[in-house]
Description:
- By secondary structure, the chain is α+β, with helices and mostly antiparallel strands.
- The protein has two domains: 17-248, BirA Bifunctional Protein, domain 2 (2-Layer Sandwich); 256-299, SH3 type barrels (Roll).
- Helices cover 32% and strands 27% of the residues.
- It has helices at 5-11, 13-16, 25-35, 45-50, 70-78, 126-142, 197-202, 206-210, 216-235, 239-249, and strands at 61-67, 87-93, 111-117, 148-151, 155-158, 161-173, 176-186, 256-261, 264-274, 280-283, 289-292, 296-300.
- The protein has a seven-stranded mixed sheet, with helices on both faces. The chain has a five-stranded antiparallel sheet with strand order 11-10-9-8-12, with no helix packed on it.
- The termini are far apart.
- Biotin binds at residues 69-71, 93, 96-99, 102, 104, 112-114, 155, 165-167, 183-185.
- Biotin binds next to helix 5, strand 3, strand 6 and strand 7.
Amino acid sequence: MKKSMxxxxxxxxxxxxxxxxxxxxxxxxxxxxxxxxxxxxxxxxDEIKKGLNTEYIGREIYSYHEVESTNNVAKFLARFGPFExxxxxxxxxxxxxGRGGKKWESPKGGIWLSIILKPEIDHLKxxxxxxxxxxxxxxxxxxMNIDAKIKWPNDILINNKKVCGILTEASSKQNTFDYIIVGxxxxxxxxxxxxxxxxxxxxxxLSNETQEEIKEPKIIANFLNEFEKIYNSFKExxxxxxxxxxxxxxxxxxxxVKIKQAHIxxxxxxxxxxxxxxxxxxxLDNGELKTILSGECSLKKH
Length: 302
Ligand code: BTN
């Protein structure tokens, strides 16, 4: 029977505390099999690799049929060693995670993917990595002649409907990172009519927009190619380049928005910019400027 990630972690505590060089490859492969139905290759690794022109992003790919959450599998793997650029994908997630502790519906028909990263960079810069990921996705979709836009902080929209979300999870020590997991959920071939009504109104998929079946390996490879370029910029600390590109692709700046934050009342105002940390700058109705670190943003007609 398949074990939960938590059970696996506690069962394998001793192995996990060893360095990757000391772990037998067969032992690791066995663990990976236990995590989910590994390598049945519903999303074929070879086809993704054919489209890759990266140096290290996606050079190692774990392709599952079903896992609880690719972010959790990626976190599990990240404990074993370097793995920078390793990808975990799954056809189905049974406990897909969205931002703010929400569930992320992950049936067949989507790209559910996580990237393991180990940047040597100040932990305060993590929000910029989420923005950078959004740029890479928006660029990938624009290459399909679809006008994708980014909504702060991390939703990719087509005609105001969400097609992709990003969940970045990090483990930091002092001011740097042990690892960062960038989780990306793209509605590729999702049949929107199968979604519950509230979601249907605000969601789209790539196939819904193009009226064609989407070739997932190609989209994944294009995304990883874009991602490596912008991730290298991030590591080189070219933050202005990332922020400017984000501003150009965003539909948030210049819009009147409503921000919902946990335990804090809703804030409304005109989004006038983002600062160097990726925080949204709002101009409130009384003229005051307010920076917002996180929250759920919706565009509002004023
Ligand atoms: C959001 O709420 O917009 C973020 C959604 C992120 C979903 C992706 S799917 C792959 C990865 N694994 C998860 O459990 N979540 C992320």
